Every structure is written in C-alpha cells, then in structure tokens.
Amino acid sequence: MNTNQKRIVNCKSVDVNQLMPLKYHWAWEHYINGCHNNWMPTEVPMQKDIEQWKSNFLTPDERLVLMRNLGFFSTAESLVGNNIVLAIFKFITNAEARQYLLRQAFEEAIHTHTFHYIVESLSLNSHEVFNMYHEINSIHKKDAFEMKLTEEMMQDGFSTSTTKGLQTFLKNLIGFYVIMEGIFFYSGFAMILSLQRQNKMTGIGEQFQYILRDESIHLNFGIDLINTLKEENPEIWTVSFQKEMQDMIEEAVLLEIAYAEDCLPRGTLGLNASLFHDYVGYIADRRLERIGLKKRYFKASPFPWMSECIDLEKEKNFFETRVTQYQSSSALVW
Ligand SMILES: [Fe+2]
Ligand SMILES: [Fe+2]
Prior knowledge:
Blueprint: H1 25-35, H2 47-54, H3 60-88, H4 95-122, H5 126-130, H6 132-135, H7 137-154, H8 163-184, H9 186-197, H10 202-232, H11 239-263, H12 273-290, H13 315-318, H14 320-326
Helix pairs in contact: 1-4, 1-10, 3-4, 3-7, 3-8, 3-9, 4-10, 7-8, 7-11, 8-10, 8-11, 8-12, 9-10, 11-12
The structure holds fe (ii) ion (2 copies).
C-alpha cells in the first residue's frame, strides 16, 4: 500500500481497513489524546449539588441558568453523536480518521450519560430536561440549524463524488465541529463554570470541565479534518462557498446570543447577555481564522478566566491532575 494514496474522502486505491502505515498522524494523535481522557460522570460526587439544589441556596435566576443549559446539552450531545454515525462516518475513507470518529462517538455517549446522571441525582423532571429542545425557542433554533445539516447528507442518492456533494459534506463538518462544538457549546461552558467558580453546583461544574476537555479535542480534530479536506479538494473552497460559510457562522453567532439572552433574562452570577455578545464574537473569530476565513467581530474575551488556552494544547496543564487520575481508572477484575 502506498500511504500517499490515502485520502480523507473518495479514496479509491487504499481500503479503509488499512490503518497502518499512518498518513494523517494528527488523527491518530487526537485519538490517543482522547483515550487518555477517560472519565465517567458517575465518578463525580453529587452530594453537595443535591443539597444546594434542594435547599434555597441558588436564586431563581441561577436555577434557570442551570436548567436551560441542562436542556440544551442533554440533547445536543446526541445530535453530535448521531451526525457522526449517520452522516460523517460512511463518507470518510480513511482508517485513522475513522478510528478517531469511533472514539469521539463514544465520548458523546458519555456526555449524554452525564445528563441522565444529573437528572437522576437532582430528581429533576426528565421530560422537562430532555424535551426542552422542543419547548424553548432559542434551543430549538440551534438544534434545528444542526439537524438540517444531518438530514441533507441522509437524503437518498447523496454522494461526495461531485463538487456540490463535497461542499455539502464540508458544510456539515463546519456546522458541527466549528459551530455546534466550537460556538454553541461555549456560552453554556462559561455559564456553568461561572456557577462552579462561585462554589455553586460544583459536581456539575466538574463534569462540564471534563466535557469541555473532550470537546476541545473534538474541535481540534474537526479543524484538522476540515483543513485537510480543503487541501485535498481545493476546487470546493470557492469564493462563493467561503462567503456561504462566513454567513452561516454569522447566523450561528446570532442564534448563540439569543440563547444566552434566554438563559440570562435578568443577569446573574456577574454575567449578563451583553457580555455574551462579546464572548460569542470573540470565540467565533478564533474559529473563523482557524479554517481560513476572515475575522469579523474583533472583540476581547470578557471572561479571561475561561482561559484563552482552553481549546489549545496548553490546556493540558490546567487539567493535569485529573488526567493522571483518570488515565487507568479501572483494572480488570475477573
Ligand atoms: Fe460532547
Ligand atoms: Fe463533541
């Protein structure tokens, strides 16, 4: 097998079961990094969260922040998992990239599991949490935006053999990796980590830190995948397609700001919706640049504590103690 003949999509000369020799070392590295981050939501003690939730420790506004974010994340995680399995996986013709997708799909299942565990621990109304994406307009709009991208690729006869088909595929990758996991998750991360910083619902805060750590790798894999797809198929990255992607990201920014407004109708925790105009713009600019599009918002982050390095390699130190702790969390017992 000639490694150089491996291609991310539409590969005709190397079969997809031949992992080695590797061509896309980045995909393998993301896979190994993901495997080093094993964790289970049920390992996080919830007693303090339960006490705080059941007493009047949180204000109604703080409870709303928590509930809306549980509502969004509980189903968003499965949308991402489903998109990998139903839309992305079959069109990726490379073994090392598929290896990563298998790992990521498992992590998305762990993330969905987290919300099951939180609902059970706090005795929340599961219907209310898991049905919120049908009930709350700003959540519904973000999810509908994503589900449309999955459906486009599930149409009968969809194929990546044409320029148009490949552009639809790339749009799906940008919609999920850059927008869903790279923008739509970040207001929620900032809100829940704000609660945690004030010693509120710290078990959930810790679970969100684990999710954020996983999502940082998902985002970085997605960006490598997107940029490789562009390099191998330069004909799809036309000026008009770039404009379409730029517009799509700008539309997503508005959806995300509307979501933040819905979570923070009055402002709480030192947070208010106007800070999220800046934060979402700041995040979006960083994503735009990484896929070769122009910055648009030029905002400073209002949450420097979110750590500028949170989705970069430096982030590893931040989590170092836990990474070690979870590296081999369970031994075999017969
Ligand atoms: Fe996730
Ligand atoms: Fe993810």
